[in-house]
Amino acid sequence: MSALQSSAPLVLGIETSCDETAVGIVRGRTLLANIISSSVEEHARFGGVVPEIASRAHLEAMQSVIAQALATAGVNLADLDAIGVTAGPGLIGALLVGTSAASGLALGLNKPLYGVNHLSSHLAVDVLSDESELKPAIGLLVSGGHSSIIELSDPAKQARVLGATIDDAAGEAFDKIARILELDFPGGPAIDRLAKSGNPHAIEFPRGLAESDYNFSFSGLKTAVSRYLQKSPEVHRADLAASFQEAVVDVLLSKALAACRATGIERLIIAGGVAANSRLRAVAVERCALAGIELRTPPIALCTDNGAMVAAMTSLAVSAGVAPSAVGLEAKSTVPLTEPTWR
Ligand code: KG4
Ligand code: ZN
User: Is the Cβ atom of 145 under 6 angstroms away from ligand 1?
Assistant: First the structure.
């Protein structure tokens, strides 16, 4: 470790916005631990996350996940320089478990507390796999609740939203189509797997809002897929999954690359749960190479919800001199991407 790294802030980040109780520890931009306890199996039989169950699972898991993260990183609580926590957007009861735990730690250790935006954190995790200087980038943020195109200049302070979904998020579309196909929950990984044996060009599904700005719409695609299945129930399901996935991937990348061209920014970061999609990653590599755009996709384990991203976002905020949040800070169920941290 260089002298600079050893003096970089040691940050613990807590994520509880949905069904993952997750704690990450970073020193500066080096990842030291990333521990996740998921309650996904407890929700599976309901076909979606049940907020009460998620909150209870966070309470039960919190202490042991923090202890495992500290042990993995080989550090003590007293070594920490700051505590970060997802304070929104997310399920309010779930968020409150995280903000309460983080506030307690910050108060007990007398260390600064940072309430960070879950969405900004998805993009900030990219810095953990990048030694170079922070550069302006276009962010394509695709998760269960959001699909947005963002111009990122200083990730700890500034983000300009160029476009967002006007109806379903990309992940939500994956989850809904998976339900129609009677696949497992969460649907994204299940469609990804099924699509591997299908032909992505078997069915030409609509590309929503293809002609317009940087906004997305996935509800027409969802209707088209479900109508197709009703009319042709004998369709090869893998072809249907692959063709649906292709339509999502095509529209996400077309718009993200159009944003790169329009702004002259030559770097694209794809982040959020849907960034784990194998087809999105493969087509992004091809199209970015053709367009001369530097592509950044976090490792798959850091795309879906995790604590490392919260620690990374917090570390950026500490280094940028952002003021810490108050102990007992407000958890918010919705927060714009333009607010990476709040007091
Ligand atoms: O970022 P994330 O873990 O949680 C939210 O902040 O929402 O994203 C979860 C979403 C779910 O909709 C899930 O189906 C989707 O990401 N997802 C995927 C894949 N892995 C997770 N979608 C497509 N392909 C995948 N491999
Ligand atoms: Zn997320």
Answer: yes
Q: In this predicted structure, what is the pLDDT of residue 148?
A: 97
d(CA 317, CA 329): 16
Backbone angles phi, psi at 217, to 5 degrees: -145, 125
Pocket of ligand 1 contains residue 90 by CB under 6 Å: no
* Cα–ligand 2 centroid distance for 161 (angstroms): 17
Domain of residue 92: give its range: 10-129+302-342
Match 């969802």 to its residue by tokens.
222
Report if residue 2 sits inside a domain: no
Task: Give the burial string for 294-321 (b: 16+ CB within 10 Å, else e).
Answer: ebbbbeeebbbbbbbbbbbbbbbbbbee
Indicate whether 1 belongs to any domain. no
Residue 79's nearest CA partner among 8, 149, 147, 145 is: 8
Q: Please determine, for residue 189, whether its predicted confidence score (pLDDT) is greater than 70.
A: yes
- CA 276 from chain center: how many Å? 10
Of 174, 181, 184, the residue with max ligand 1 atoms within 8 A of its CB, to mutate for a pocket test, comes to: 174
Q: Report pLDDT for 6.
A: 63
